[in-house]
Design brief:
Elements lengths: L13 E5 L4 H13 L2 E6 L4 H8 L3 E4 L11 E4 L8 H9 L3 E3 H9 L3 E6 L4 H14 L5 E8 L4 E4 L5 E5 L6 H4 L4 E4 L7 H4 L2 H13 L5 E4 L3 H7 L5 E4 L6 E9 L2 E8 L8 E8 L4 H16 L4 H10 L8 E6 L2 E6 L4 H9 L10 E6 L4 H7 L12 E4 L16 H10 L5 E3 L3 H11 L4 E6 L7 H13 L3
Parallel strand pairs: 1-2, 1-4, 2-3, 4-5, 6-9, 6-10, 7-9, 10-11, 11-12, 12-13, 17-21, 18-19, 18-21, 19-20
Antiparallel strand pairs: 7-8, 13-14, 14-15, 16-17
C-alpha cells in the first residue's frame, strides 16, 4: 500500500473500505460514517456485521470490483488483504490514495484527544472499561475497540465529546503510528515474532510508543519489561503485587465477580490514601488489573474515583470474555478469546471461586496462526495447569500459510513433555473434537473453549451433538 499524505477527516470524504466485514475494518467504517463521511465497502461474503453496516448507511458490495474505487478520495484495507487485490490495484493505478488500517486509524485519532490502550493482553477489556467510565462521567467519548461491548452491541462509536478511546494494536506496529494524548500499557509478552523477530524488539517498540506520548502515561508495574521502560519515562504505575502509585488490596473473588480496595500514593513510599472499594462483575486477577489501570488513568484525566467505581460496577464485559453460552444436562459451556499462554493461564486460574458449583474444568484450545505456533508452541506447556482435562484441536490459520510439520500436535507434545500426568486429548478435526466432547462431558463439568478462530461456535455444536446422542434433537 502507498505511503500517503495525512488524510484530513475534518473535511467530508468518500472512503472505500476493503474487507469491511472484519472486526477491525467494520469498526473503522462505522466511525467514519458516524463522522459524516460517505463510506462504501466490499467483502467476500454476507454476515451479520455486513447487514449492520448497511443499516447505518455503508454501501457494501459482495465480491471485489475494481470499479468501486472510482470517485473515492481514499481507500483503506487491513494487512490481511493481499496487495494484489483488484480494488487496491485499481486505486493505485488511478491515483487514489491507499491507506493501511493504521494510517486510517491515525487519521481518525487526529480528530479527537485520543487515548490509546496498548499491551499484549487486556486491551479490549481495558479500553471498554475506560470508555464506560468516560460515559459515566458524561464525557460522551468516541471509541474504537476490538470487540463488541456488552450492553452496547458494538465496538465503535463517534461521540460528541473530546476523547477517543482506541485500542493501540502492536501486532503490525500500529501502536507506534497513532497520534495519542494519553495511554495505558497493560503488559508486554512474547507474540507477533513474525513481525518483530525478537522479544527485545517488541519491548523496544513499546518504548517508542511511550516516547511518542506527551500526556499521561500509565503502565503496569507487575510487568518486568514495563518496569524497565517506566524508569526513564515519567509514567504513572499501577500493580497488584508490586510497589506502585495505584495498588489493589483486599482482593476477593465470589459469585463470578471481584471486589478490591484501591490505594493511591501521591509520592512513592508514602502511606497512601484509600480511595475506596470497587465491585466488578468480572472474575480473575487480570480483570482487577485492567480496572486498576483505568482508575489510574481516569484520576490523571480528572475523573473522580466514585465515578470510576460506579461505572466499573455496572460494566458487564466484552463478547467472548468468559462468555457463558449455555447449559446442557448439567454441563456449563463457556467461551473465551484467550489464545496466548499468559491469557489461558489467567482465565483458567479464575474459572472457579468458592461459589462455583462445577466440579471439573474441561479446557478446549484451538491454536491460532501457523507462524505463531512455529515460534512459540513450547510456551503452552504449563498454561493448562488449572484444567482437569485438556483437548487440543488443529491450528486456525487466520490467513497465515501452512508450515511443514507445524500443527496443533506441537502444543500437545509440549504439554505432555512438561506434564506427563495431565489428562489430554488430541482431536485435530472438528468432527473428532465434537464427538469427543459430546461423549466425554458429564454433569458437573464446565467446558471452556478458547482461541481467536472459529472455536467460538463450538459450544452450540457440542450441545447440539449431545442432544442428538440423547435423542432430544
Amino acid at each position: 500500500m502507498s505511503t500517503t499524505a495525512h488524510l484530513d477527516l475534518a473535511m467530508k470524504q468518500r472512503i472505500h473500505v476493503v474487507g469491511v466485514g472484519g472486526p477491525g475494518m467494520s469498526a473503522i467504517a462505522q466511525v467514519l460514517i458516524e463522522m459524516g463521511h460517505h463510506v462504501s465497502g466490499s467483502d467476500i461474503k454476507e454476515s451479520e456485521t455486513i447487514e449492520r453496516l448497511r443499516g447505518i448507511g455503508v454501501v457494501i458490495n459482495i465480491g471485489h470490483d475494481a470499479g468501486v474505487v472510482h470517485h473515492c478520495d481514499a481507500v483503506t484495507a487491513s494487512t490481511a488483504i493481499p496487495a494484489k487485490n483488484v480494488e487496491l490495484t485499481e486505486a493505485l493505478n488511478i491515483g487514489v490514495p491507499v491507506l493501511t488500517r493504521a494510517q486510517m486509524l491515525a487519521a481518525i485519532c487526529r480528530q479527537k484527544l485520543s487515548v490509546g490502550v496498548a499491551g499484549t493482553h487486556g486491551k479490549t477489556t481495558t479500553s471498554s472499561m475506560l470508555m464506560a467510565v468516560m460515559r459515566e462521567a458524561q464525557l460522551h467519548p468516541s471509541f474504537i475497540i476490538g470487540g463488541d461491548v456488552r450492553g452496547i452491541g458494538s465496538g465503535a462509536s463517534w461521540g460528541s465529546g473530546k476523547y477517543l478511546v482506541v485500542e493501540a494494536d502492536e501486532s503490525d506496529g500500529t501502536h507506534e503510528q497513532l497520534p495519542l494524548g494519553a495511554a495505558i500499557v497493560t503488559n508486554i509478552d512474547v507474540d507477533h515474532l513474525d513481525h518483530f523477530a525478537t522479544f527485545d524488539n517488541v519491548v523496544e517498540s513499546f518504548g517508542r510508543f511511550l516516547d511518542g506520548i506527551d500526556g499521561p502515561k500509565v503502565v503496569c508495574a507487575d510487568d518486568e519489561s514495563l518496569v524497565q521502560l517506566a524508569s526513564t519515562r515519567g509514567v504513572t504505575t499501577y500493580a497488584l503485587h508490586a510497589p506502585a502509585r495505584f495498588t489493589a488490596h483486599n482482593v476477593k473473588f465470589l459469585e463470578g465477580g471481584s471486589t478490591f480496595d484501591v490505594r493511591h500514593q501521591e509520592v512513592a513510599g508514602d502511606a497512601g490514601v484509600e480511595l475506596g472499594c470497587v465491585h466488578l462483575q468480572l472474575r480473575g486477577e487480570h480483570n482487577v488489573s485492567n480496572a486498576l489501570a483505568v482508575i489510574a488513568l481516569s484520576a490523571l484525566l480528572g475523573i473522580d474515583f466514585d465515578v470510576c467505581a460506579t461505572a466499573l460496577s455496572e460494566f458487564s464485559g466484552v463478547a467472548r470474555r468468559f462468555d457463558q453460552r449455555g447449559t446442557d444436562d448439567g454441563v456449563v459451556f463457556v467461551d473465551d478469546y484467550a489464545h496466548l499462554p499468559t491469557e489461558i493461564s489467567a482465565v483458567l486460574s479464575s474459572c472457579t471461586d468458592e461459589s462455583d458449583t462445577w466440579t471439573r474444568v474441561v479446557a478446549v484450545f484451538q491454536p491460532n496462526r501457523f507462524n505463531r505456533m512455529e515460534h512459540m508452541s513450547d510456551a503452552y506447556a504449563d498454561c493448562f495447569a488449572h484444567a482437569d482435562h485438556v483437548v487440543i484441536t488443529d491450528i486456525y490459520s487466520s490467513g497465515t500459510a501452512p508450515i511443514a510439520g507445524v500443527t496443533g500436535k506441537l502444543v500437545v507434545d509440549a504439554i505432555v513433555r512438561a506434564n506427563p500426568q495431565m489428562s489430554i486429548a488430541w482431536k485435530p478435526t472438528r468432527a473428532e473434537l465434537i464427538q469427543h466432547l459430546a461423549v466425554e462431558l458429564r454433569s458437573g463439568d464446565m467446558c471452556i473453549s478458547m482461541g481467536c478462530g472459529d472455536i467460538e461456535t463450538l459450544p452450540d455444536e457440542v450441545m447440539a451433538a449431545r442432544r442428538a446422542l440423547r435423542g432430544d434433537a
